[in-house]
Amino acid sequence: MHSILRTTTMALAAASMAFAVPAGAAAKDNAKPGEGTTIKMARANWDTGWWQAEVYKQLFQKLGYDVSRVTTLQNAAFYQAVAQGDMDLWVNGWFPNQNPFEDNFNGRAQNIGYVAKGGALQGYLIDKKTADKYDIKYVSDLQKDKIAKLFDSTGDGKANMVSCPPGWECQNIIEYQMKHYGVADNVDLSTAGYAAAMADTLARFKNGKPVIFYTWTPNWTVGELKPGKDVVWLQVKETKLPKAQSDLADAAKVKNVTGCSDDPCMMGLPANDIRPVANTKFLKDNPAVKSLLQNVSIPVEDIFAQNAKMNNGADSPQDLEKQAKQWIGDHQDEVDGWLKQARSAAADNKS
């Protein structure tokens, strides 16, 4: 009888040892729940969003994920790819600007979390000196030939306004508004590379010439041309938006906007949330990534500061990597909390 008990006890002990996971291995597995998985990450084709993408990339890597390549894509290409599973995610979604793409990815991909909530303003600006001298306050003031001609840089009598490049949803919105505010015949929209066009605009401003441009925040442009000091926001008398955004007029009326003559400011364009968008199946299979995307956020002021560094020449891949690493180090307690939640989500999924 004792022999049988000893044999049974030894067998159970052997079995438990066979199935046991060493404590060190378990801890390692929990620390790197993404080990062995590659994230197919994209980033937008506007460089003011690249640093945020680098921050998230480094956080994914801390969880063991392989993010060796980040692909630069236009909006339409990304949303098609993420819906099909050819891309897993990006953190450069702009909503409601990119609402029209949702029909293409709903059910297969989803918005999740917020890089920056409600902090992304957009609109039209002109230099303050010209605004004050000619009492220019509204986009519709460009209906007057003499006002439009002030911003003519090509000699055709039309205002030359920096707009958005093809493929950016803001290009469609701006064209719609120029038409519906009755200024399309008096405005030529520059849709070339945005950074180069704004560099030319900054040079014109420094030479004392009138400037007019579309921009968004956070962006280096409003660091170089400061609203209220160098430039002012043009308002609209009535918000007119394409059908897909027609219910967002209230979001285009923004309080406490520096550089606007009225409060609230009738911006004409709704404030946006900067949001990650990810493939739904990928999120289901990777709860650690899902947790990170839900919890991570970056203050708009920090994005402004980095964009200014980038505009001043610190814009190489090595610079972005260094800046992201520095930001993570400066927010280590918060980052540790995000990583802890992500690891817990992965562990809970396994149990």
TrEMBL record:
Annotated ABC-type glycine betaine transport system substrate-binding domain residues: 38-328
InterPro entries: ABC_Gly_betaine_transp_sub-bd
Leader sequence segment: 1-25
Keyword Signal applies: yes
Coiled-coil intervals: none
Native source organism of the sequence: Pararhizobium mangrovi
Entry GO MF terms: transmembrane transporter activity
Name of the protein described by the UniProt record: Glycine betaine/L-proline ABC transporter substrate-binding protein ProX
